Every structure is written in structure tokens, then in C-alpha cells.
Amino acid sequence: MKLLKITKKKISVFWLILSIAIGFATYHNALADKAVFDTVNILLLLLGGYGVILTIVNHTESIIENNNEMIKKLKYSKIENTYNLLRDWDDEHLFKARKLTRDIRDKKSNMSEKKLIKTIEKDDELRQSVILVLNFIDQIRFSINSDRVDKQLIKEHLGDIIVDIIIRFESFSKSISNQAWQDMEDTKKLLNG
Fold first, then answer.
1. What's the number of CA atoms in the CB half-sphere (13 Å) around residue 141?
2. pLDDT by residue (tens digit) across 36-65?
3. Which of 15, 41, 74 is the last residue of a domain?
4. Which of 79, 85, 103, 109 is the most buried (most CB within 10 A)?
5. Tell me, what's the pLDDT at 145?
6. For the chain, where are the E strands, in sequence order?
7. Has residue 98 been placed in a domain?
8. Cα separation of 112 and 104, whole Å?
9. Is residue 83 domain-resident?
10. pLDDT tens per residue, range 141-164
11. Residues 116-120: contacts with CB within 8 Å, 24+ apart?
12. What is the dihedral of CA 105, 106, 107, 112, to 10 degrees?
């Protein structure tokens, strides 16, 4: 903004000097009976040109100002989305689901991958809990990939926990679908990288 104000002043001074010089040259080089008419004509054309130039500079200034405002709004929106995602992590449904997945973590060292899948599959509440947590993790992946959230803040607050959950339920996510597992792997790479 400051630069454009300086530019406006420079343009105004330059245009004034240019107008005086051209007006003077026109007056002295025109035919005697048309000198005043030609000089006024040239000065009016220069005045019109000055108006066009200032309009362009003002429009450019407006575009830059709007662009800066949009950047501020995008940054705010990104922080707000990050905050909302972090807040959702403590949502009561997700909190309950995470509690059930922690119980599995404590038992996992004593069970095979197949037994883990069977344990999850036979308990509807546990299955829904694991799926809810995996869906949340997929939401994190999507939000980071679409640049809706601050990746660094997500990594700082949830990164290690999410990676631990992905590793814990690797076999289960593979049993859902290859795409589900690939999404989990992508999330792990995003949070580790």
C-alpha cells in the first residue's frame, strides 16, 4: 500500500512535469493562430491519460488490498479448522471409542493379528468404535491433503497418538479394504514426514 502511494505521487509529479513540457513545446511549435487551441487540446488529452493511469493504479491497489485480506481470512480459516479438528478429538463419542481402542492396545501384545480382527468383528460396539476412530484419522488425512488445517499443529498435538493407532489397527484396516489401509498409510506418512 505504501509503495502504491509513493507510486501515485511519483506518477503525479512525472505527469505534471510531462504536461508542462509537452504543453510548452506544443505552444511554441504550433501555428500562431492555433497555439492556444492546440496547447489546451494536448493538455486535456494528457489530463485524460492521467485519469486512466490513476484509475489503473487505484484498481491495482484495491486488488492487492483484497488479496491481502483474503490471505488473512484463509489463514484464520485454516487455524479455525485445525482447532475444530482438535476439539473433535475430545468429542464424547470419539472419546468413548478411543477408550475401547485403548483397551485393545493393552490386550494386543497377547493376541495375534487374526485374533485381533476376530475380537473386533465379534463385538459390535468395539467394531463401531474402531471404525469411528479410523474415520477420524481419515478426516485428518483429507484435511491435511486439502490444506484445510495446519499440518504442523496437528502433528504436534495428535501425530504420535494417531500413528500409534494406525499401527495398532493395521491388520483390521487391511481387512476392511486395501483402500482403507492405503489411506491409513498415507496418514502415517503425512504425520511422520
1. 19
2. 888 888 888 888 888 888 888 888 888 988
3. 74
4. 85
5. 95
6. none
7. yes
8. 12
9. no
10. 999 999 999 999 999 999 999 998
11. 116/171, 116/172, 117/171, 117/172, 117/175, 120/172
12. 50
| Residue-number span of the structural domain to which 148 is assigned | 90-192
CA atoms of 15 and 90, how far apart (whole Å): 63
- 103 and 55 in a common domain: no
Q: How many structural domains compose the chain? A: 2
Cα of first residue to Cα of last residue in the chain, in angstroms, is 38
Domain boundary (46, 74, 102) is at 74
pTM: 0.70
175/115 Cα distance (integer angstroms): 12
| Residue 150, C-alpha cell as written in the block | 495446519
In eight-state DSSP terms, residue 32 is G
Position 15: which residue type? Answer: W
Q: Identify the DSSP state of 14.
A: H
Average pLDDT over residues 79-94: 91
All cell numbers assigned to 50: 492521467
| Contact call for residues 46 and 18 (beta carbons, < 8 A) | yes
Q: At what angle do helices 35-89 and 151-168 cross, to 10 degrees?
A: 30
Closest of 137, 153, 136, 132 to residue 80, by C-alpha: 153
Residue 101 to residue 133: CA distance in whole angstroms: 8
Closest CA to 30 of 45, 19, 40: 40
